[in-house]
Amino acid sequence: MRVLAHVYTYRVELGRRSYPILIGAGLIARPDLFDQHLFGRDVLLVSNTTVAPLYAAAVVGALGSRRVVEAILPDGEHHKTLANVSRLIDVLVANRFGRDCTVLALGGGVVGDMAGFAAATYQRGIAYVQIPTTLLAQVDSAVGGKTGVNHPGGKNLIGAFHQPNAVLADVRTLATLPQRELRAGIAEVLKYGLICDAPFFDWLEAHIDGLLARDLEALTHVIRRSCEIKAQIVGRDEYEHGERAVLNLGHTFAHAIEAATGYDRWLHGEAVAAGLFMAATLSYECGLMPATDVERIKRLLVQAGLPIDAHQVSVAAALEHMKMDKKVQGGRIRLVVPRSIGECFISVDYPDAALQRTLAACFG
Amino acid sequence: MRVLAHVYTYRVELGRRSYPILIGAGLIARPDLFDQHLFGRDVLLVSNTTVAPLYAAAVVGALGSRRVVEAILPDGEHHKTLANVSRLIDVLVANRFGRDCTVLALGGGVVGDMAGFAAATYQRGIAYVQIPTTLLAQVDSAVGGKTGVNHPGGKNLIGAFHQPNAVLADVRTLATLPQRELRAGIAEVLKYGLICDAPFFDWLEAHIDGLLARDLEALTHVIRRSCEIKAQIVGRDEYEHGERAVLNLGHTFAHAIEAATGYDRWLHGEAVAAGLFMAATLSYECGLMPATDVERIKRLLVQAGLPIDAHQVSVAAALEHMKMDKKVQGGRIRLVVPRSIGECFISVDYPDAALQRTLAACFG
After folding, report:
1. Is B248 one of the catalytic residues?
2. Residue A348 scores a pLDDT above 80
3. Residue B24: which CATH number?
4. Interface residue of A124, A247, A320 to substitute, partner B, most B CBs within 10 Å
5. Residue B190 belongs to a domain with what CATH number?
6. What angle is formed at CA A120 by the lines to CA A119 and CA A126, rounded to 5 degrees?
7. What is the pLDDT of residue A183?
8. Of B176, B207, B241, which residue constitutes the final position of a domain?
9. Is the pLDDT of residue A328 over 90?
10. Containing structural domain, residue B350
11. Residue A64 burial (C-beta neighbours within 10 Å; 0-12, 13-18, 19+)
12. How far is it, in rounded angstroms, from Cα B95 to Cα B108?
């Protein structure tokens, strides 16, 4: 008899759209979890050319007698397009999948965002389950129901809010994650500490080496704490009318970097890392964050092997793309500003000169 | 001083997504109504090549100093595609429209469904206002938040629920509506009588000639009553978990006709007319609806100049498309069955032989 590893469960509380996030080792191969959280006979398994060869067979095995159709997408952020979502929908139609089928997203944020958007729009919304296989997806993108694709004019400009039926974060899938992707995921983890949890930031400073060495206990801890924070914030503000926007800390800068470089040179998490440092710099330039905090953030990012600037992108290009970001309000760029490590707020009335100095310091 | 015509207002009650339906003469030229219901400076006016030359100038005039960008689509159901929605999003991006812009849909159901879907998915959801200019859109498609496009495999297979901020039904725009489109709109009006309002059906029998002659008072009455019924049903079941499905009376048959004929020969309302008669026939074949009621329905449809069968579509093709409809559940086609004029229910356990006899009688 096999002893099943412990499964940690957090619940995103959204009334009739509530769902569990399951975190543990070996989840993707457990038929009992699919039986509990995936209903219906027909499953569209969406994955990419990198992840499918590693984990699709285990998932299909655990799905038992269900009818499983696989849709394997090319890997990479620049493939996150409406054309590829349209292809997923073609597969659903071609296989005559009804409203009671389930889309299963097996992969990182790109796979999850596209599979989720296909589920959001096929027959005006069908069920989907997230099986994130990157650290970034496990701590961030698989949770919260943001789905969508990029437009040449900007990141995630087309999309919908559509909550999954469940999120299964299997920490064992991180074993095959390239080190660069692991680092990128850590950027989003640091974000949670910066936003609202100074003790977690302290913990990360103490355990960064263990994380980079893929210590399973350390990874499980950061996934649990990150999901807990995200589930609470999303539960209070599903549609980002207010508080949820703090989760975008660093992201307006990050999206500008990604868009300016055509989504194919920077990983999202790398751009977020630079964006976090830029947000800290802006706060310092506004006279808020003490230099010692900025220095701590910089040190931890550098220790994690993450970038803190984007000199290959011009200030003009960055500003152009930032103006196209979804967070623009009445022509003014809304930014999340960290006041200190563990506290942040949303601002449109930062001094322009402070933003200019920040951009000049961090862009080319 | 100009005396403003009376504006009838119904409210779709959906919590923070509640919105008004305004019905009256000359609404599209009234700046006061846009000031009350359309916020933000930037407006994407979506229309088609038929409607724009007739009414776009009046609307733009009433929008005052707002920045208005026009996106004019080709006319017709077979242009209701994801590719055209993608074009609308390109226009939004190209003009750097932010999350605080509004999409204004000026036209029939095709324009409204596409503009609404673009609004549903641009930046994960922006505001839109419906200005339906066909009877069908005024009594049905502009109300209730169903947005989307067709897929070669089926009608409205891609879409989202996204409620408008307001619906402005200007009865004067019906003056230019081709007679065929007027008849098509009447099909959806008859539907409301059949679903839940026998006295309204009686009224329609008595006033069908006035409607066909475009008596403004009669038209205003049917728009008001139809919107009232639809607003109540949508208010109780926004996402069609239950009761709202009755609004699909005749529509599974209708969508099969439309899909089988490539969306370019039948108007949606014409297909609905045939679908209503088929649903009545099915009910009769199930031993429910008395022959006298079926006869009344047939007589009124014929008086309205609407079709009651689709012999150019084969039974096999019809069945094939019906199985692809969104209403399929566990492999079984869910149908709305009228029990009598003014009462209907949703069924999956009608006798197969009754459906077969219905299809054999009404298809080729």
Report:
1. yes
2. yes
3. 3.40.50.1970
4. A124
5. 1.20.1090.10
6. 55
7. 98
8. B176
9. no
10. 179-362
11. exposed
12. 25
